[in-house]
Write a structure and sequence with these properties.
This protein has helices spanning 31-36, 66-85, 147-155, 176-180, 224-237, 271-276, 331-339, 352-355, 359-362; strands at 13-18, 26-29, 51-53, 56-57, 60-63, 89-91, 103-104, 109-110, 122-125, 128-131, 159-162, 210-213, 216-221, 242-247, 258-262, 265-268, 285-287, 317-320, 323-327, 343-347, 363-368. The chain has 378 residues and is α/β, with parallel strands linked by helices. The chain has a three-stranded mixed β-sheet with strand order 6-1-21. The chain has a three-stranded mixed β-sheet with strand order 9-10-11, covered by helices on one side. A three-stranded mixed β-sheet has the order 12-13-14, covered by helices on one side.
Amino acid sequence: MASLNSFDEWSPLREVIVGSALNYSSHERELSFDLFFHENITRSEWYYPRLSMPGETKIARSPIKQRYVDELNEDIEGIVETLRSLSVSVLRPMDLTADTPHVRTPAWSAAVVPPLNIRDNTLIVGDEIIETPPMIRSRYFETQFLTAVFADYFNKGARWTVMPRPMMTDASFDPSYANSTAGGPTEPINDPQPSPYDVGFEMMFDGAQCLRLGRDIVANVSTANHALAVDWLERHLEGRFRIHRVHRLSDSHIDSMVLALRPGTLLVRSPDVMERLPAPLRSWEAIVPPAPERNNFPQYDDDDLILTSPFIDLNVFSVSPDTVLVNDACPELMRTLEKHGFTVVPVRHRHRRLFGGGFHCFTLDTVRDGGPDDYLNG
């Protein structure tokens, strides 16, 4: 294992963690889950459970068919093999065991989900691991599965920080974005139940809300929860990194809206995205691929819970400034990137819409060649 060093999204990749989906069995429908995925959960037969009494969560479980989990695990192993074939060292989290029970805090309980989308709850900035405050209750202890990996990096000199952990009562969440967004949920998410552990809005923020550009970090802020967390990041990283806020570029994550593929080149969902970015980034080349085709995705049953937009495949993963892992179901995207001089490595990932993540979500790049360069001021 090398020493932790990851400042950007594109420098030659040496070491990466790839997530695990072992024993993924269901999604739990409760307030935090529905707020997070509100833009894509719109079917009227699904309801939105609330906390039925202080400290006890009413849970509606949405089972995931075992064949989807089996195929996802096959595809993850394909990602691992592909990265290793490109001379990248691949590390893995601990797997979730089948007998792992619910976890309980003073305010709520939730089933544990496996450490699949590991980009979300950790932000790597240079030589520092920052565990971010979770946004979904079932993922509250997800970074525990990475403890052994993080400890090894710490022993090699890395900084290791944990942001303040939220109480995550209903009153902790700012629902304003969800309740103001067109095409959102079938009912407003505006019925928080009181708890004796209420402390008001709290920090909740995912690493996937950040675009890392050397010494600069672009952070998406859509709620009061995000704003508090970015306040913390600004103070913690002062003098080492500059934080640039973008407001409501998306509901939370920005890595299916915009990704930096190399200095001067962005992959974006639409030209409108460029207008929302910090001024220095608006002069970068914008690659806008064709809209995804319906036949790029599997067809699912009515009881299968769709968690992402069709633009999830913009969630590519760069191995170097000219080499990109792309879903092999997206010929339009592959052709577009090849026209711009990229070497495309096609990799299978079938059920990204059911599990809420693409290649960038499933990976946490820990060692790249790049440093704290200034890409925004020349």
